[in-house]
């Protein structure tokens, strides 16, 4: 039986976030973009990571669907010895995030415009000659609640299998959302691959990264529920 991992709490007072990272959005973008559209299937240009991140070797945290990357920037400031790479499908948000990172002077943070259901292999291949992916987060992805749109969700069978194939053994994958139906779907999708993943089914009261996301803070402040769990890749890769 699926076990839901969440806690409901109400917060009063300032949120645990540095004010310098919170800015008014400078661009307006559509909340939803169709990842199946042809424009998001094209190859993307990938940089020389040694020219962007601190010298290797270093661990990279991969944040899938980072939006404006304010959360990523906070983590990068707290953990200067870890590299943080966000991937976001909405290009205007990527441009905005990169400009903000430059202003803040965060050499260990970067954002790519990409579609993780298409570009995962290329992104990981571009990193791994010099860097090691140490962890992955999938926090509050687009739920695509209409039945006809479920195929647009970033977490699907093919993506879960691809993650297991390209990530190092025992890589933690942190999953979190405030949408119960989506959480059940994501957990069941990962659990459909028992040869690829170990499910950490222990109770998780706080964000695995040690810092709440912006969305998480808003939901908790409004007494909403957060659903979270962790999967780890096994020491096994697909043929």
From TrEMBL:
Enzyme class: transferase
Pfam family, one: Methyltransf_4
Swiss-Prot/TrEMBL catalytic activity: guanosine(46) in tRNA + S-adenosyl-L-methionine = N(7)-methylguanosine(46) in tRNA + S-adenosyl-L-homocysteine
GO MF term set: tRNA (guanine(46)-N7)-methyltransferase activity
Keyword Methyltransferase part of the UniProt annotation: yes
InterPro entries in the cross-refs: SAM-dependent_MTases_sf, tRNA_(Gua-N-7)_MeTrfase_Trmb, tRNA_methyltr_TrmB_bact
Protein name as annotated: tRNA (guanine(46)-N(7))-methyltransferase
């Amino acid at each position: 039986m699926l076990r839901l991992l969440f806690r409901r709490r109400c917060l009063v007072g300032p949120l645990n976030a540095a004010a310098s990272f919170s800015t008014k959005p400078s661009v307006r973008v559509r909340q939803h973009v169709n990842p199946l559209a042809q424009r998001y299937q094209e190859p993307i240009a990938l940089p020389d990571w040694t020219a962007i991140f601190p010298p290797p070797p270093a661990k990279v945290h991969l944040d899938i669907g980072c939006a404006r990357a304010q959360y990523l920037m906070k983590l990068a400031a707290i953990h200067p010895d870890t590299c943080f790479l966000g991937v976001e499908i909405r290009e205007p948000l990527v441009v905005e995030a990169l400009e903000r990172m430059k202003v803040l002077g965060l050499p260990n943070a970067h954002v790519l415009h990409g579609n993780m259901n298409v570009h995962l292999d290329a992104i990981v291949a571009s990193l791994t000659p010099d860097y090691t992916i140490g962890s992955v987060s999938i926090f509050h992805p687009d739920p695509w609640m209409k039945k006809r749109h479920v195929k647009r969700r970033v977490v699907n069978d093919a993506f879960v299998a691809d993650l297991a194939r390209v990530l190092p053994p025992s890589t933690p994958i942190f999953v979190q959302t405030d949408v119960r139906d989506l959480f059940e779907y994501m957990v069941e999708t990962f659990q459909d691959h028992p040869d690829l993943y170990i499910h950490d089914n222990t109770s998780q009261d706080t964000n695995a990264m040690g810092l709440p996301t912006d969305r998480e803070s808003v939901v908790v402040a409004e007494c909403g529920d957060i659903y979270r769990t962790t999967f780890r890749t096994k020491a096994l890769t697909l043929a």
